[in-house]
Every structure is written in C-alpha cells, then in structure tokens.
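Figure 3 (text version): structure tokens given as input.
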C-alpha cells in the first residue's frame, strides 16, 4: 500500500465509519451560536470557521462552490445558509446518504451532494468559482492528481482552499506511535510543511495567494488522552497552551492551509 494509490474500495471502507458524530442539527446550531467552540471532536469546527468566513467574504453570492470530501455535509449546509450555491462530494456512500436526507428533510434548495472520487470528478470543466477541502489531501499518495482535477473544474481566476496536518506538530510522531500499537484506523496519511504544500500547488501551475497556520488546540496531538483517568485532564491543559503558541507564530501547529488561484 505504501507505493500505490489507495483504492476506491479502501477509501469507502475507511470513511464510511466516520459518521458517528453529533447530529447535523447540533453541529449547525453550535456553529451559529458558538462558532463551533462547543463541538470537541474531529470536526475542527472552531479552527476552520474564521478561515471559511474570510474566504466567503471575497466571493459574490452567485459564486459556485464545491467541498471535496464533505463527509455528512456540515460545511456545505453552513455555506448554503450564507446564501451560496454549493455542492459536496464524498466517496463514502453512508455520509452522502446522511447529507442528502438532511437536505431533503429541511428543504434546503441551494445545495447538492454527490457520491464520487475527487480524483475523477464527474463535473464539467471550468465550472466552480471556489473549491475547499479540509483534512482530505493528506490521505492520498498522489495529491497532484487531485489538485489537477480541482484545477480542471475551476474557472480561470477561481480559487481553492486546502487544509492538511502540519509536519511541525507532535501529530507527526503520535500518528506513527498509534500505527505501531494498532490504534490507527484512518489508512494512509501524511503531514505537510507549508513549503511542501505550496510546492504541490506550484507544480500544478496554480498561483499561491496565502498560506499559514490555522490556530487550534492540537499542536501536541490527542495521544495523551489514551492515559487512563488523567489523560483528558492533561489534554485540556495542553489545548490551552497549544492555542497560545499557534496564535503567535507561523511554523508550529496542527493545521496548515494554502489558498491558490487558477491562472
């Protein structure tokens, strides 16, 4: 597996299990009222929201948007609430089914969901004004295929916003430890530096507009939580230290991002 791209079947098997999370009503209420700060799980709502809002502020309301790797669709619904037409694409049929059911139940008209492989989108060329993808690119051995596909479906002048785990955080090491002790079930994953991420964009002939750290609470990872009784308490302390450090420099942190433009 180390030398070849993960198959569609493998990806479906891995990501179909990641739908056991707070329901969409709870997620969206938390985003509206608390900016994601009360959802303490793998969704990283509070970390990503300021960056999403900043990027949306640059777009016209008729801008066509796609989320690649949308999961159950919390960000698609959030963006639809802001008045944008948006499509979510995900390879996990269970996640797409949850999202479609929620959209139908709540009569949300300006969004759609597609089950598909982001390496081979069934979408016409030059279609979107903006593409975003959070915590997805790092799970592919050949990310250049994805960036070239994103470029294909973007309009000239369209932008993409990608976030991935940062090489300069303890997650780089705790992930390895988790794999060794058999507690890792996310398949292939790698971390990037800002330099290596931006190099991918430039190799795809995309213009990098901005990049940096996304301040959050996991510079030290979550590995400490496996310690019985005291792990969660230690993690809470480390989370506060992490946010302080990540907010004051541009190298160390759990998440990094880049925004690039199609020339």
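Below: residues designed for each position.
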């Amino acid at each position: 597996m180390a030398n070849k791209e993960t198959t569609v079947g493998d990806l479906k098997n891995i990501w179909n299990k990641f739908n056991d999370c707070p329901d969409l009503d709870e997620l969206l209420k938390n985003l509206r009222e608390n900016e994601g700060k009360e959802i303490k799980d793998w969704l990283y709502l509070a970390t990503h929201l300021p960056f999403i809002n900043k990027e949306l502020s640059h777009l016209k309301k008729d801008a066509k948007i796609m989320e690649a790797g949308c999961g159950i669709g919390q960000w698609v619904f959030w963006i639809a609430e802001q008045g944008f037409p948006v499509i979510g694409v995900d390879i996990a049929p269970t996640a797409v089914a949850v999202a479609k059911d929620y959209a139908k139940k709540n009569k949300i008209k300006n969004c759609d969901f597609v089950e598909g492989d982001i390496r081979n989108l069934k979408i016409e060329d030059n279609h979107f004004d903006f593409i975003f993808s959070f915590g997805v690119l790092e799970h592919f051995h050949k990310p250049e295929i994805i960036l070239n596909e994103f470029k294909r479906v973007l309009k000239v002048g369209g932008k993409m916003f990608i976030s991935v785990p940062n090489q300069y955080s303890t997650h780089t090491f705790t992930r390895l430890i988790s794999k060794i002790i058999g507690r890792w079930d996310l398949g292939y994953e790698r971390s990037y530096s800002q330099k290596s991420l931006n190099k991918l964009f430039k190799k795809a002939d995309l213009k990098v507009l901005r990049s940096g750290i996304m301040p959050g609470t996991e510079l030290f990872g979550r590995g400490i939580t496996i310690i019985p009784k005291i792990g969660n308490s230690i993690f809470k302390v480390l989370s506060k230290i992490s946010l302080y450090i990540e907010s004051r420099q541009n190298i160390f942190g759990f998440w990094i991002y880049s925004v690039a433009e199609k020339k």
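The mean pLDDT is 92.
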